Every structure is written in structure tokens, then in C-alpha cells.
């Protein structure tokens, strides 16, 4: 059967006078798959693949039947996930004589890229299957998502969409269908560019997920891996589309940071080799003034892509750019009908006994009113329940919460407008999902927490409010950014206090351990305590000033580490070149170490002044302070730069599954920081001792006689190594800032719970949050904005202006 199919395919291709590459361009089937089919090396026949090839070759009915017969004989049973949708629209044959190549087909990837693409496809499939289950899309069955073509002004010319040569006549595209035929609809578009429009909450994101999963199931391995990218935070004036795709791939799939022989990362190579199909979700969430430039940026690239947006926002962007998305077909999601509601809502009510006709359901009387359609209340409620979002909110409030009667939704006095009804559903959703219930065990065998509904709503409101700070709304709720919504003065104070505490504790610990040995001379415990206080205050102040300066240059946002320490050369294969890795870290850490040295020099000078009763204005004292500032800045700066530079040479990208979820990324970063701390403390201690010896010998005679005794050097090195390492870890790494701000400061001020991790995961399991790679997002942008508005109204608007700014 394999030889028969290969011979038939080869004959048809040669009759059409096409090379394997040209057939791949027309069919969107990879060259490798075509080659394996023709040579008989592939026995995994898929109906959708054969249909794509048949369409591209323009075969007749008899030859298409031969394809099907071959599949039936080779595979008696159906292939899971490859059945044609029952309602899939008929696809007209692609006109072969005058058709230009649709979109550039991906070139044959190298083995490294092929492996990376296969791993990425597996991750994407696993992630979105889990997300579909978490959002309960199939419980009890998926809400119908249908579409129709958009108006002509929001689409390119049919000839451009089908990528035809001049003079060729475009055939009609059937752009009607439902969620079961989304892949077929997409594949009927020769350009590979599709715009999906719809109302807020109409199911665009769910359709994007289903598209990615169906495309992955229809072709293994896929010619291009569909990856969903949220566009809400994209600024096209500062970041290119290529830069956005690469940055998100690196964030959500850290193993793609590995470098190939050309020097680029796997993420960049996958994008540049056209092995990624971007599914750009939420064009409407881009800031209003940036949508026009964003559309122009998308028009500047020929990449096949899928774009989702609300209709009005996309239409405004089209008018601003004076063109729709070039080469793109467009579909618009239609509203749910009363019949859809009558089929779906009664099956979600599992709390009460009902008759066989469903009359026992809490929705029975409401649905009867909606089907009459002659009262303003029923018309208003029908308008509200026309989107899946509002249906899910209503289901949560009334089908899954005992004692609630949806008949109240028909109360026109209480809800005079559709907006009032929608706000009622949004407001009641969080309280409904947090109603007290018997603790359950989740998939990890941990007991689910019972959070107070009012406090949970306040915490979620703060999280939503934090995403609205700045020039435009953000959607990505990243654990490493939770503390960055605090005002700059609070963050500077945080760095100062954390650094001061770390340096003071290091000083006390080292010197108290050395006190019994007599290494400190006549110094007593009181002096040790005083020295720790001085070292902590002055070095912490120095770190705070440095952090404040870096804030001006926007260099203070710590991001999660995408690397781990690996000593073996094999483990580091594919990472950055050693010299480049060393130099990239050297300059920044030179500055940080120098700041620490300056603060330490002032602490030593102040302690001497107190011991000897000398004023700091004394000429000799000033000279000693300046000399010590130079010496300690060089010693601490060089040792920090060398140590961190060397560590950078031994860093390797994380494993494939290192960042499947936000919590997994947090756990990996905690382990990475722990490894760094264990290595940094002894290396910095040794580095300070050796650099001090080198610096004092080089400057000997230039600034006067210098002493660097071994015993004193070891004490200074231990304090600097322990205090500097812990200051760096807790004040300047993403995990350290998460620990000190999100787990201590924000809970202390009542804005987050003490167990923030458990709260975020619980909110995800309850359906309030969703996961988008390594970050959380609110279930819908409308829910986020509602919670943010409610939080500001209840907790900020009634406070004095100064208190609101501090918040």
C-alpha cells in the first residue's frame, strides 16, 4: 500500500510538472512529508494531508478516490484526530495554472531545528490541552462558535488572498463554518493569513486554542508550529514583530535559548526559518494609539499568521492605516441564539432533580421567557447572553451555586440596561466561585483552600489594578513583576533595607565567629554590633542610590533566569560563546561591586572616627576615606565582575519542560538562585582576597603604603562574599524580589495573601485566572477591568491623594 500511494503521488506530481518544493508551497505540506510519502518511508497516512495534496495537484474525482482507497486499505480504523469535520464546508480546487506560490513554505530544517520544532509542538499541544480542560470547554459540551465572512472593506482583494498572478480569476472562498472546521477554513486560504473578528467574549481566544490543537493533530510533524501570542503588551514602535515572537518564545520555552552554530538562539532560528505560525490573540488589547502602527508592522511582513480582534477596534485600525491586513481573509464570529442557550444551559444545572423534559432546571422559566421574545426583559437578556463569556458567567452564578434563581435577570427595575446586567454577572462571578465549600483535592493531591470571598475579591482587585498602572493596560500577570507597581521610592527603600540587612547580618555572623579566635584583636561584641549596623546602613544606602540611578535608565526590572549552572562542556553545548558571556556580565557587575566597596569604605572610616574620636573633616581622615574608597571599589568591583563573568561562562539553557507553568518557572528560579548563592559566596570571598592582594600591590607607592594582611583579607572577603551574594540574590534577582515584596511587603500591607503562590494557583483552578505560557492572565479582559474598577472605587477613591499615590 505504501509503494502504491508513493507511485500514484509521484505520477500526479510529474504530470502537473511540479517539483516536490513547488508542491509543498501549494499544499502547505512539508517537503519532508512529501518525500517520505513518495519513497514509501511514511506509513502514517492522514486524510487531511492527502486532501491537501490532491487539491494542490488539481486531481479529478477518480484519482481522489484512489487516494481514499489507499488510505482505507492501509488503515482499517480511523486515525484519531484526523476525521473530517461533519459540517466541514466543501473546498473548491485550487486553480493550478495561474496560481502564484501562496506563502513562502518553510525550508527543510536542520536536525537541531527539526528537533526543536517537534519539542515545541509537543509543548504547545500539552499546554493548550490542559488549558482547555481547565476552562471546562467540553463540559458538558463546547458552546457553538460559528462565523461568517467579514465585510469587504475589512478584507484584502480575493485575488491577493489567493495569491494569484495578474489576469487570473479568483474562485469563491467559503468563509462560513463553525469551530469543527476552523483548520479547513484556514487551509482554503492560499496566503495563510486569517483575521478572526468578534465581540468581546465571543470566543475568539477559545477558537484560537482549538485552531492550534486541530492543526497540530492534523499534521505530525506540522510544517509550522502554531504558537499563540498575546498582543496586549506589544508596542510596535519599540519592538518589532520578530522581536516580540522571539522574546515570548524565550519566556515561555526557556530551552529555546540554546544557541546553534550560527550564533542565534533556537527561538530566533525557528522564527527566521518560518517554522512558527503566529496566532496573534488580542489585537484589540493593544493601546488605541498603537493599533495603526501595529497593523502597518504586520503588513510589512509576509508571514502566514492568524489574528484575533474585536471588530470595531480592528475597523478603526484599518481606517488609521488605510488598509486591512494584506493578503488576509476575514471571518466574524456570530452571536449565540436562544436555541443554543436552550440546549446548553439546562445541561449545566446538575444541582436539582428535573423532569425528563428539563422542566426541573433552574433555567426552565427563564428560557421560556427568552423564547417568547416579546418583552423588553427577554430581549435585553438575550442580547447579554449572546456571547460565550456571559453564558459562562451566568452558568457559574446560577447553575453551580445553590439557592440562586436566574429569574432575577429578567428584573427590569433592578437591571434597566444590558450594561447593568453584564456588570451584575461580572460582579457575581468571583463571589460565586469563592463560596465556601468542602475542601477538595486537586491533581497534586493538595487540599484546596477555602478563601474568604470578600478578601479574595480584594486581592484579585489589587492584581487587576496593578495591571492598569502605566501608560496602558497590561494583561500578563507575571509573578516577577508584582512588586514593580509600587512607586519608585518604595522600591528604592526596599533595596536599601534588604541590602542593609544582608550586609549587617553577614558582618555580625563573620565577626562573631571570628571573635573567640582573637582575630579581631581587642574588639568586643559591642563594637561588632556597631560595625554591623554601620556596614549595613552605608552599604545599603549605596545600593539604594545605585538602584535609583538605574531606575532612570529603566534597568531595574529583574526577569526570571532562563539558565542553570552546568560545569560539563556537554551541558553547556549550544550556549553563548564563553567570551561573549563573560563580557556581557562584566561591566554591570563591576558597577555593583564598586558600589558595595564604596559603602564599605565609608563604614570603616566612620567606625575609625568613632573609635579614635576624630572628626570626619580631618584632612588625614578625608585622605584615608578617599584611598579606601578607591581600594575597596576596585577590589569589590573586580572580584564581582570576574566571579559573575566566570559563572556566565558555565550557564546553560533550562530543560525543555522547565517553564511549562508560572509556578514551575518560579520553582526552577528558586533552585537556580540557591545554586548561584552556594557558588557565589565562596567564589566572591576568594575573589576579594586575591583581588585585594593584586590591587594593593599595583597601587603600592602611588597612594602611600598599603597593607592587605591575610587574616584581615579573609574577614573582609567573608563579609563581602556572604553579604554581597545575599544582597544580590534578595534585592536584584526576580525570585528575590518576589520573595521580599510579594511574599512579605504586599501581604504585610494587606494587598496580597501570605501564601501568594497558593492563591494564584487556586484562582487558576477556579477559572478566575488562565495561564498563557509562563504568566497568568485574567479569564477575560472585561473581568480584569471590572475588578480593577471595583478595587479603585472601594479602596482608593476614598483615600487621600497622598495615600493613593503610595498605594
What features would you describe in this structure?
- The chain has 807 residues and is α/β, with parallel strands linked by helices.
- The chain contains 29 helices and eleven strands.
- The protein has a seven-stranded mixed sheet with strand order 2-1-7-3-6-5-4. Strands 8-9 form a two-stranded antiparallel sheet. A two-stranded antiparallel sheet has the order 10-11.
- α12 packs across α13, α20 packs antiparallel against α21 and α24 packs antiparallel against α25.
- The protein is globular, with a radius of gyration of 32 Å.
- The chain starts with a helix and ends with a helix.
Summarize this, please?
Helices cover 55% and strands 6% of the residues. It is built from 29 helices and 11 strands. It has helices spanning 2-15, 20-27, 31-39, 47-57, 61-74, 111-134, 158-161, 182-187, 204-218, 241-252, 266-272, 291-299, 311-321, 338-348, 364-372, 376-384, 388-399, 418-433, 453-467, 488-514, 525-552, 578-612, 619-649, 662-698, 710-732, 734-748, 756-766, 781-796, 801-806, and strands at 146-149, 177-178, 193-198, 225-230, 276-281, 305-310, 329-333, 563-565, 651-653, 769-772, 775-778.
Amino acid at each position: 500500500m505504501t509503494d502504491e500511494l508513493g507511485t500514484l503521488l509521484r505520477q500526479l506530481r510529474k504530470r502537473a510538472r511540479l517539483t516536490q518544493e513547488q508542491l509543498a508551497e501549494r499544499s502547505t505540506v512539508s517537503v519532508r512529508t512529501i518525500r517520505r510519502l513518495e519513497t514509501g518511508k511514511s506509513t502514517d497516512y492522514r486524510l487531511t494531508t492527502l486532501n491537501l495534496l490532491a487539491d494542490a495537484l488539481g486531481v479529478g474525482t477518480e484519482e481522489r478516490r484512489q487516494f481514499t482507497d489507499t488510505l482505507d486499505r492501509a488503515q482499517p480504523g480511523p486515525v484519531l484526530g484526523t476525521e473530517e469535520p461533519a459540517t466541514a464546508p466543501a473546498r473548491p480546487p485550487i486553480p493550478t495554472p495561474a496560481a502564484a506560490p501562496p506563502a513562502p513554505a518553510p525550508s527543510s530544517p536542520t536536525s537541531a531545528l527539526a528537533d526543536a520544532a517537534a519539542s515545541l509542538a509537543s509543548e504547545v499541544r500539552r499546554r493548550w490541552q490542559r488549558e482547555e480542560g481547565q476552562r471546562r470547554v467540553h463540559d458538558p459540551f463546547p458552546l457553538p462558535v460559528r462565523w461568517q465572512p467579514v465585510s469587504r472593506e475589512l478584507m484584502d482583494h480575493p485575488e491577493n488572498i489567493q495569491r494569484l498572478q495578474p489576469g487570473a480569476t479568483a474562485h469563491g472562498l467559503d468563509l462560513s463554518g463553525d469551530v469543527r472546521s476552523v483548520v479547513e477554513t484556514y487551509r482554503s486560504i492560499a496566503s495563510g493569513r486569517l483575521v478572526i473578528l468578534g465581540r468581546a467574549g465571543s470566543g475568539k481566544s477559545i477558537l484560537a486554542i482549538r485552531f492550534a490543537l486541530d492543526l497540530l493533530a492534523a499534521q505530525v510533524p506540522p510544517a509550522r508550529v502554531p504558537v499563540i501570542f498575546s498582543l496586549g503588551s506589544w508596542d510596535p514602535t519599540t519592538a518589532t514583530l520578530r522581536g516580540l515572537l522571539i522574546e515570548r518564545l524565550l519566556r515561555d520555552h526557556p530551552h529555546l535559548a540554546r544557541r546553534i552554530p550560527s550564533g542565534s538562539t533556537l527561538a530566533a532560528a525557528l522564527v527566521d526559518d518560518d517554522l512558527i505560525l503566529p496566532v496573534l490573540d488580542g489585537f484589540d488589547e493593544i493601546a488605541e494609539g498603537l493599533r495603526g502602527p501595529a497593523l502597518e508592522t504586520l503588513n510589512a511582513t509576509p508571514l502566514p499568521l492568524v489574528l484575533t480582534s474585536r471588530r470595531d477596534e480592528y475597523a478603526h485600525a484599518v481606517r488609521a492605516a488605510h488598509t486591512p491586513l494584506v493578503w488576509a481573509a476575514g471571518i466574524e464570529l456570530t452571536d449565540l441564539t436562544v436555541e443554543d442557550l436552550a440546549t446548553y444551559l439546562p445541561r449545566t444545572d446538575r444541582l436539582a432533580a428535573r423532569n425528563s423534559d428539563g422542566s426541573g432546571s433552574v433555567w426552565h422559566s427563564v428560557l421560556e421567557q427568552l423564547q417568547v421574545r416579546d418583552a423588553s426583559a427577554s430581549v435585553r437578556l438575550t442580547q447579554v447572553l449572546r456571547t460565550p463569556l456571559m453564558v459562562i458567567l451566568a452558568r457559574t452564578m446560577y447553575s453551580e451555586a445553590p439557592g440562586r434563581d436566574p429569574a432575577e435577570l429578567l428584573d427590569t427595575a433592578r437591571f434597566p440596561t444590558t450594561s447593568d446586567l453584564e456588570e451584575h454577572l461580572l460582579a457575581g462571578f468571583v463571589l460565586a466561585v469563592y463560596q465556601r465549600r468542602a475542601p477538595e483535592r486537586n491533581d497534586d493531591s493538595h487540599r484546596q483552600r477555602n478563601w474568604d470571598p470578600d478578601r479574595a475579591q480584594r486581592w484579585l482587585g489589587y492584581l487587576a489594578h496593578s495591571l492598569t498602572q502605566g501608560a496602558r493596560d497590561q494583561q500578563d500577570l507575571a509573578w516577577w513583576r508584582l512588586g514593580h507597581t509600587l512607586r519608585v521610592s518604595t522600591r528604592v527603600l526596599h533595596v536599601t533595607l534588604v541590602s542593609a540587612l544582608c550586609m549587617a547580618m553577614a558582618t555580625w555572623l563573620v565577626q562573631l565567629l571570628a571573635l573567640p579566635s582573637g582575630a579581631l584583636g581587642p574588639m568586643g561584641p559591642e563594637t561588632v554590633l556597631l560595625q554591623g549596623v554601620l556596614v549595613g546602613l552605608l552599604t545599603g544606602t549605596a545600593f539604594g542610590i545605585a538602584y535609583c540611578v538605574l531606575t532612570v535608565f529603566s534597568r531595574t526590572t529583574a526577569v526570571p533566569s532562563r539558565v542553570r549552572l552546568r560545569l560539563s562542556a556537554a551541558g553547556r553545548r549550544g550556549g553563548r560563546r564563553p567570551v561573549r558571556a563573560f563580557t556581557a556580565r562584566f561591566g554591570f557587575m563591576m558597577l555593583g561591586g564598586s558600589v558595595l566597596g564604596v559603602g564599605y569604605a565609608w563604614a570603616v572610616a566612620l567606625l575609625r572616627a568613632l573609635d579614635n574620636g576624630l572628626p570626619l573633616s580631618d584632612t588625614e581622615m578625608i585622605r584615608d576615606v578617599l584611598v579606601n574608597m578607591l581600594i575597596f571599589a576596585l577590589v569589590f568591583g573586580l572580584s564581582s565582575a570576574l566571579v559573575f563573568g566566570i559563572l556566565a561562562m558555565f550557564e546553560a539553557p533550562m530543560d525543555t519542560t522547565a517553564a511549562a507553568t508560572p509556578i514551575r518557572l518560579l520553582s526552577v528560579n528558586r533552585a537556580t538562585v540557591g545554586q548561584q548563592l552556594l557558588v557565589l559566596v565562596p567564589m566572591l570571598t576568594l575573589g576579594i582576597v586575591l583581588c585585594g592582594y593584586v590591587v594593593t600591590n599595583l597601587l603600592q607607592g602611588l597612594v602611600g603604603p598599603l597593607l592587605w594582611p591575610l587574616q584581615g583579607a579573609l574577614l573582609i572577603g567573608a563579609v563581602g562574599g556572604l553579604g554581597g551574594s545575599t544582597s544580590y540574590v534578595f534585592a536584584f534577582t526576580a525570585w528575590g524580589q518576589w520573595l521580599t515584596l510579594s511574599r512579605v511587603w504586599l501581604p504585610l500591607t494587606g494587598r496580597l495573601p501570605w501564601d501568594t503562590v497558593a492563591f494564584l494557583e487556586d484562582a487558576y483552578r477556579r477559572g478566575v485566572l488562565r495561564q498563557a505560557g509562563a504568566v497568568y492572565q485574567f479569564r477575560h479582559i472585561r473581568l480584569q477591568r471590572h475588578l480593577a474598577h471595583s478595587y479603585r472605587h472601594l479602596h482608593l477613591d476614598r483615600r487621600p491623594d497622598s495615600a493613593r499615590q503610595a498605594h
